[in-house]
Amino acid sequence: MSIDPAALADLDTFTIEVPSWAYGNSGTRFKVFAQPGVPRDPFEKLADAAQVNALTGAAPRVSLHIPWDLVDDFAKLSAYAADLGLQLGAINSNLFQDDDYMLGSLTHPEKRVRDKAIAHHVQCIDVMRSTGSTDLKLWLPDGLNYPGQDSIRGRQDRLADSLQQIYAQLDAEHRLLIEYKFFEPAFYTMDIPDWGTSLLHCLALGPQAQVVLDTGHHAPGTNIEFIVAQLLRQNRLGAFDFNSRFYADDDLIVGAADPFQLFRILFEIVVQDAQKPASGVNFMLDQCHNIEPKIQGQIRSVLNVQEALAKALLVDRSELRAAQERGDVLGANGVLMDAYNTDVREALADRREAAGLPRDPIAAYRASGYQEKINAERVGGTQAGWGA
Amino acid sequence: MSIDPAALADLDTFTIEVPSWAYGNSGTRFKVFAQPGVPRDPFEKLADAAQVNALTGAAPRVSLHIPWDLVDDFAKLSAYAADLGLQLGAINSNLFQDDDYMLGSLTHPEKRVRDKAIAHHVQCIDVMRSTGSTDLKLWLPDGLNYPGQDSIRGRQDRLADSLQQIYAQLDAEHRLLIEYKFFEPAFYTMDIPDWGTSLLHCLALGPQAQVVLDTGHHAPGTNIEFIVAQLLRQNRLGAFDFNSRFYADDDLIVGAADPFQLFRILFEIVVQDAQKPASGVNFMLDQCHNIEPKIQGQIRSVLNVQEALAKALLVDRSELRAAQERGDVLGANGVLMDAYNTDVREALADRREAAGLPRDPIAAYRASGYQEKINAERVGGTQAGWGA
Amino acid sequence: MSIDPAALADLDTFTIEVPSWAYGNSGTRFKVFAQPGVPRDPFEKLADAAQVNALTGAAPRVSLHIPWDLVDDFAKLSAYAADLGLQLGAINSNLFQDDDYMLGSLTHPEKRVRDKAIAHHVQCIDVMRSTGSTDLKLWLPDGLNYPGQDSIRGRQDRLADSLQQIYAQLDAEHRLLIEYKFFEPAFYTMDIPDWGTSLLHCLALGPQAQVVLDTGHHAPGTNIEFIVAQLLRQNRLGAFDFNSRFYADDDLIVGAADPFQLFRILFEIVVQDAQKPASGVNFMLDQCHNIEPKIQGQIRSVLNVQEALAKALLVDRSELRAAQERGDVLGANGVLMDAYNTDVREALADRREAAGLPRDPIAAYRASGYQEKINAERVGGTQAGWGA
Amino acid sequence: MSIDPAALADLDTFTIEVPSWAYGNSGTRFKVFAQPGVPRDPFEKLADAAQVNALTGAAPRVSLHIPWDLVDDFAKLSAYAADLGLQLGAINSNLFQDDDYMLGSLTHPEKRVRDKAIAHHVQCIDVMRSTGSTDLKLWLPDGLNYPGQDSIRGRQDRLADSLQQIYAQLDAEHRLLIEYKFFEPAFYTMDIPDWGTSLLHCLALGPQAQVVLDTGHHAPGTNIEFIVAQLLRQNRLGAFDFNSRFYADDDLIVGAADPFQLFRILFEIVVQDAQKPASGVNFMLDQCHNIEPKIQGQIRSVLNVQEALAKALLVDRSELRAAQERGDVLGANGVLMDAYNTDVREALADRREAAGLPRDPIAAYRASGYQEKINAERVGGTQAGWGA
């Protein structure tokens, strides 16, 4: 299949937001393996993220996580970002590390704890005002480990109330992005376990509330692209947290576990034109580079999403529609597979070269000496991590 | 734990609807093993269902499946049911056995096929008018086996349109009950794969549309009682299809695979008072007695649901709430487990005896000679089955 | 990545065995949709299989299923196969369609039933002697639907005894290939649910017993290539049943659901040189073309396996080993992905052309008029199917 | 069902081994919530474990974990245990917290790292000689996160070699217990992902090697009691790690998620008489009391196993066999369910009372003041945990 460059034009404006925490240490409950060169503060995280953007040209925004990325002066952080060619992106709240949250945060039986969790979001909204961020991302880790531990119904009611209080604080240009997750850290039920629950809360809140789809947060076998299509149909797909998984929320590099699934997800995006900035869908990464180098891991992730999008853009949609309409099962599937089986790497390298970027960003990074430099410089201090 | 008979009072009005097709043969794609005594027509199915009701006192309604249960004269069938102490219940449509439906029914790319599927529901509504049934139950087997085979988004749009046309035909006292299913018979994606999709279509249709929760139609690990709580919170839980499973949609006897899960489901029912007839929730069975005798299988199912409900009613909810409010994880779980671990069988036998029913319905059935009678009488003709 | 033709040389001798039953009708428990042109007898099945081989040059053997493919004169069937350029391959026994097998066959509590199932295998071995087949393939559908239904331990003991009696009947050049399956048709436990159980029985029997790995017969999330590597390490991987799945034993076209997984499986094959005929691994298809045309489905399957093998052969194994040895996680993964991301379709088309085969076997089949011919000719009679 | 006390006699000699680490803090990768009163050293852990044994009479042994429980003088620790009425049990090695193990331990590409991991086991064997422990328990966290990261086959070979070196160090009365795990901390493949792999290594090593079955370490839907039956049939079930799960390796209290499954597991134990000490099966707990109080969590666990065993012992096995032999599916299942549905709690309380133990160990613990005492006393120092 020869590649028509025009077919890939939407890649010009397609961007991916990287998470500040991807550059810090992460691990499993068994061990966090420290890596050399890991940032000690948000400024160093931005410096690393700037490498990813400089080499790929496609990752101009960085999500922050509060309190991990709290700084005294957010204006200064924003200015530093701008100097690096970056923007500060979504503000992620944290409801899982305060001792008060052991049995819940926004759903906790005690009003005092719920109020604290709500206040934390008010703080995050203040950060947004300082940074110019428009997305408040909320992942609710609340849930139950044992049947009977608390009332499933009661927690939904409390959650609705807490969310309403947060939503009321938003400015007109703000969005509240609500994530769902199948399990972990709670092992009997999560309070927002699925897209249906997330969407119901968004619908109750209003048009500024949207769903976040983390690709690792589903039951085994779930057809994720169906959910993408459904949320787009409802105009409520606010953002992705991209990663990949073989088992649970493995948080591997997006596209590493099932590249065909990633392609199918991006094809549903293309079907509803959501790859264009006007869609408002924020394509974010959320991954844990537990054993692989982090900056390279981020670059690989950006490339994987670009390759999947390129393939999705190459699908001959009029041929596809024709085959679908004549009930040609194998023909229609064949049109999709033709695009998937196409090797787009050279075409993407050509595009990068034309844009003054390295043809092979991974090789360029390896050759740049940046990693050796930070390994040498970032000695002492406390490496960033989740603080678990 | 001693059992206060008053705690079980709601069992007096709690009924279970049995499916006509449970008395016919069923099997897997590998083999349908015929059983002796299986009914040859809807009248014989009703006769068998009447045994279940006579021995348990709790199964007074029988769901019909169209076309399997088509008869020339539904008034006559209703009268026969009444003579047996039964009512005709939900009317189930069939969208999976017409050759035209190989690639879909209500979602099919061709308008001709969609119109046919819509017309089938009009026919079912006519049956409802003849039988006095108020529930039209729609399970959509439509879906795709291969990525690209058809447009996921396009099928949602067609589905919405088809459902709207069906909904428009309902009488004021009718309900449209829309079921969802994770997979099978489609193996890439179903067109209504989850409760969220079913609910969205119900919300778009109006208040007479409600969700059916089949306990076997979820991804592995799904917390079903959470969905029960959520749908009740939305006032959209129309009915259950009870059965049980270890793997997929195994359609085993309800409570056989995970009795604790059944208890948890019924506890969420009790939490929102949905065990009372006023809730409108129709508690139906939908099972396949592939290798076990069918009438006994149905009796066992009714008993299992009753036992689970009894245990759910025994939960000391004020103790539970107190433990939940004080954050006593093990105490709260313990309150629930106390009820679950209670042996309610004697208490239920006492209730049956007081109502003039046999203490042990299974033993009574085995001793009744009914099975021997139908084995001897039902010779010749074509045994009822799915007609797959 | 440019493709060195020499790297693909093993494709010359790599063959895939097709199942006779793939050309007949199949379906789910809900419906078997009949297709035009479907064979009515084993001779017509062979004629269809010959198309697949003629167009791909890689499918010279056809598995038979007894009793579906019973004929009066197997010498005549073999001669017919030879005329078509085919050989008869593995003989598959059937333990799931006799009424006596409702509660088991080789594991049944009654000796009479077990003896019948053993005798069926003696019959199959006789067929092997007539056809020159060397592989007796045994898939055990036995299992339990309900806890307590029979003794798990007792059934293992009976199974071991039954298998021993079958094994004793083999000729020196015969192999007994024992398949495992996670679930279906039994829904509580299968009697051979996993590779460990299959292997233990093989080890107890002797060197002529080998394991069959059906790619659809595993729990969700199972790493299949690990099992491939492990069985090869034990010299006990006798054969594959290739197909693909999103959920359960979906029996879709191999490579359709997860082409990356198929590549990984074939890479483990290549690692242990099992793609060469000397390995004795029989690469078979076992699929159900429920809604897609069957001959095209088989051609697509052969091509998918060839493409996956081609990519696996392209892995730069010395680069890979070097990256692995230096602990370069992303580098090593990158070497594998480079091969996977390569578009091998033109290279394979070149090879086919050089061998006098059509570059595009699917297009060639569609253009050949064969399907129209059989649609017209095969009218009347009973279409082949599973006879469920 | 009335309970014949004689049926429960095997409970007299049935003991459960508790893990030292259950008394320390644990959590998820998101957060370890500290609890008051948590031990600071192995002596305090033993003191807590002694409470569990004192109140249940059934938990006389404590597993140690090296290096978490390293002390200068194991003779002193053993003596302290004896004073508390306890014995030191299995010695658990740790292969997941040394920085060298990021890419593997016994399977690592570098010999230096493998040698270190082997030497750690020699150290553990030395501890066994000091404590009189006979079980060396090895859980291998090794595995891969990315396809291609290392050779699956090569790692099996290295593992076999490493295990052989460890096995060679065992004394005659020692056992090497090898655990398997489906996933986590590795997310592409574990090096011992399933019972088959664990058993193959045990068979290669010799009779002193046995399999450990952790109830949380399986793929979704796996029938665990089948594995129990199979391993007992091979005389290779060395030990259990009991816990429970809804999703992954949730490490909840055993019996909390699926009490019916726990009963079925113990029934397979009873079928092969493995509840008797002579079987050599070591019934251990391995759980994480992340949000519930730890000592109560352990007591609850011991009671849950006892209740499940009591029910398993109550199964009328001659009735069961009779029903199985006559092919009475529902009758046989009914015999099993009769025992499961029996409320054994009073009978077990009676037995405890007769043995001078509290009828309700949880209530007795709550009333004892022990928790308040340790909460007050254990101030300062570093609470025990996993050190992740």
UniProtKB/TrEMBL annotation, chains A, B, C, D:
EC code: 5.3.1.14
One Pfam family named in its UniProt record: RhaA
Record has Cytoplasm as a keyword: yes
Keywords from the named record: Cytoplasm, Isomerase, Manganese, Metal-binding, Rhamnose metabolism
Highest taxon listed in the record's lineage: Bacteria
SUPFAM superfamilies reported for this sequence: Xylose isomerase-like (SSF51658)
GO terms, biological process: L-lyxose metabolic process; rhamnose catabolic process
Record has DNA repair as a keyword: no
GO MF annotation, one: L-rhamnose isomerase activity
Protein name in UniProt: L-rhamnose isomerase
Organism of this sequence: Nakamurella alba
Gene (UniProt): rhaI
